[in-house]
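Bit of a strange request maybe. I'm writing a small parser for structure token strings and I need a real example to test against, not something I typed by hand. Could someone generate the tokens for this chain?
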Amino acid sequence: MYLLTKLGFFSIVRKSFDPIKGEEVKGEEYQVRGIDLQDMYNLLNAYKTHPEFNPQKHHLPLILETRYADYRFRMQVKPVEMAIMFKVLMESIDYMNFKKAVIRNPEQAKKAKFYEEFRQAILSIQGD
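Reply from user aminoacidic:
Good idea to test on real output. This should exercise your parser:
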């Protein structure tokens, strides 16, 4: 799943890494992936300050870096924590116009051109 959000760009898949096998395996965890470290911190910081986050009960994922992967940054997230992250993303929708919200945010403004190109590509398959 691709998410173009006010906090950043994310790709979310359901899989986990087995350190013993040294490979990714289908599992019960989600992997939140990103290309921009600041985006990952934006989501992680919003997650750990969300009212539903409880440090005694919930896992605080680490941001892992893999320099030559298609998504350089990753977090392994359990389903209960993923639910809180989705709430964080939902609650970040406080705007009437996404493109304007992105452009107004200095750390996200560089993505505005890409988001517009993505929008145009999607519109091209919409049909008449």
